[in-house]
Amino acid sequence: MAARAARVAIVGAGPAGFFAAEALLKSGDPVAIDLINRLPAPYGLVRDGVAPDHQAIKSVARVFARILARDEVRYFGNVTLGEDITVDQLRARYDQIVYAVGAQSDRRLGIPGEDLAGSHAAFHFVAWYNAHPDFRDAEFDLGCEDVVVIGNGNVAIDVARILVLSRDKLATTDIADHALADLRRSRVRRVTLLG
Asked: Would you say the C-alpha torsion 175, 164, 44, 46 has a positive or negative sign?
C-alpha cells in the first residue's frame, strides 16, 4: 500500500514558494501541495518586481507554470492569511506549513526628507509600473526634469532606466498601461544615482 501523501500548505506563491514546492516534489516522498497566495495571480516578484524590459529574467515563470501544472499542486489565490484563513485552520488541515510570504514593504532609510512629498520607495514605484494591484492607483509626480535615486543595486538601476528609457522601447515591454501613459507625459530628463 502506498504511503499517504503529506499535505503541505505553502503560504506565498512567489519564487520562494515555488522553489519550496519544487524541492518537495523532487524529494521523492508523496506530497499534496496547496499554494496559498494573497494576490489573485501567482509568481510574486517575478511578476511584480522584475523590470518590464527584462523578459529573460521573467522567463522563470515558465518553470513555475510547470510546477502549477503538476497533479500534486493546487493554487488558491485571493486568500489572505489572518482574514480568509487562520493559522489554526491551516494547522488543522495540513501536515506541514511553509511560510514564503516575502517582503511586504520597503526598507526605510532613516534619513531626513524621507517622508517629504515626491520621495518614494522603489518598492512602490516598481510595483506601480509592474501593475501590482495594491499600487494601481499610486501617483508619482513625473513633472520634474531631475530625479535622484538612492542606491546602486539592481532595483535602483531598473528604476533609473525605466525613468529615462525611450517610451517607444517601453511600449514593447509588458509595462503596465497606466504607467506607460504616465511615463509618456513625464518631463524627467536626468536621473542621478546616489549609492
From this structure: positive
Which grid coordinates are listed for 124?
512602490
21, 36 in Cβ contact below 8 A? no
* Distance in Å from the first CA to the final CA of the chain: 60
Rounded Cα–Cα distance for residues 26 and 23 (Å): 5
What confidence tens digit (pLDDT) does each residue in 22-79 have?
Answer: 999 999 999 999 999 999 999 998 888 888 888 888 889 999 999 999 999 999 999 9
At the fourth CATH level, the homologous superfamily of domain 6-99 is NAD(P)-binding Rossmann-like Domain (3.40.50.720)
Flag whether the pTM goes above 0.70: yes
User: What would the grid cell of residue 112 be?
Assistant: 531626513
Q: Where are the domains of the chain?
A: 6-99, 122-194
